[in-house]
Model the fold of this input.
Amino acid sequence: MIATVGYFEPWWIQIIKAIVIFAVGLQLVPVVLLAERKLLGRFQSRYGPNRVGPYGAMQPLADILKLLTKEQFRPTTSIGFLFALAPIISILTAVAAFAIIPFGNTQDIFGTKVGLYGIDVSIGPLYVFAFGGVAFYGIMLGGWSSGSKYSFLGAMRGAAQLISYEVSQGLALVGVVITAQTLSLTGIVTAQKGMWYVVPQLFGFLIFLVASFAETNRAPFDLTEADAELVGGYNTEFGGGRFASYYFAEYLNVIVVSGIVTTVFLGGWLLPFGIHPPGWVDPFVVLFKMSLITFLFIWVRATLPRLRYDQLMSFGWKVLLPLATLNTLITAIVVVATH
Amino acid sequence: MSAVLFFIAAIGAITGAVGVVVLRNPFYSVLALVGHLVSLSVLFLLLRAEFVAAVQVVVYAGAVMVLYVFVVAYVGGEGERIGERLHGTASGTGAALRLGGAVLGGAVLVELLIALLGTGLEAVDSYGAGYSPGPRTYGTPAYIGKLLLTRFLLAFEVASFLLLIAAVGAVVLARRRGGLGEEDPDADRFTPLDLLRPPGSGTTAEGVGRRTG
Done:
């Protein structure tokens, strides 16, 4: 049931796991980046990047090299230390949230029991929300310290958007937690052995997905950077490595949210119809499901137009929040009635 | 390891708390408060109170302080005025403010001393709760949830009722101000386009609450 290891893994395994998580996260971001640009090209009847390497596969490498070798500059109106600190906060919280996603159950690797996740905390999803809350300061401080109107407006929108949709996102997960009766993410996965929660918690799944689009500042909720109105939003004044940090954090957040959806609603490493592959297949199952959700993110971005700001607010508070509350209430009643 | 973490977090908490009072720019004061709250949550983690630590960050750093930052960023630059009022140059209220602040500060100090001398000092020589993984041990969500719904049910409900009253009060106060549409001379203008356009088609006129045809 609840993973047998946790705090009792040897210290060297925890260090190796930290390095592996950071490396995997670092590798996934360029892949998602390339996939997004290629797919957006296809959605819009064009080729997408196809010059660097075979099929344009080296494009992210070229992008990263370009960004990292650019000159670091900042506007004279900006506030120096906050301007440098803000991208660091963004990237730090994104990587920290990635640590919680379980890629498999406890495995025996060379006689040592290793959980295929960074940590399995007893507070589960609350850990993600805690880092999500801190991630807000990355956007807010970045926009505020730039000393530019566009950045400031983007940051303010980001602030209002994040606190509005965080509530619905959290409430959508409460339904799952009530059904699984545990907060541990590995516990939630093993509780889905009979049926993935996407079926009994369909409304929770949809609400969580929509709220996640807003939380990760992705289209159609990308009002923080709305390039038609705000040039680039909160990161208008950022260039070079700092812009790369923001970009990295945004895509890592998409990956983390895909991981949470996979874990909480799509059965994590479990396969349907009782198929039981050997343990080393588990991470690939999780990665496959995550890539499906990431594809959905890109698909939605290519399909839907951006909302207007007041539409975003009234949708969050007047539609999504009541639905999420109702979902939690009905789930609680059903669980109590069937016990 | 835990001793090192404790001193980092404790120094962070004290620095943050001092910063809130000392810093002149209200924006930096709020940031110092955020630093203080995050350091506190690290202290909670060291006390095996994982749930309280997470809630501390989610609720205070992630929601309450976000609103503070939001407001201060909009109305920023008021720092000098607060200083003027305290030193009594703007009006005659400086002395009264300083006296009131001293009285309130003294009251908080007495209350903290009662709490510290009453319970806190007993625990100084002992260690915290031992760590044992499992769903129903000290500091986990299950344990706290059970306490909230059994032993502290009344206090829990009274506190939530208080928050509800505050929220309703805030809505009532906010409603008193006029909306965008009332003083707008164009509010009642009706063009043939409005007939052609179905309601809810997302125009800017709809966004500011004008009639939608």
Remarks:
- The CA atoms of residues 47 and 127 of chain B lie 9 Å apart.
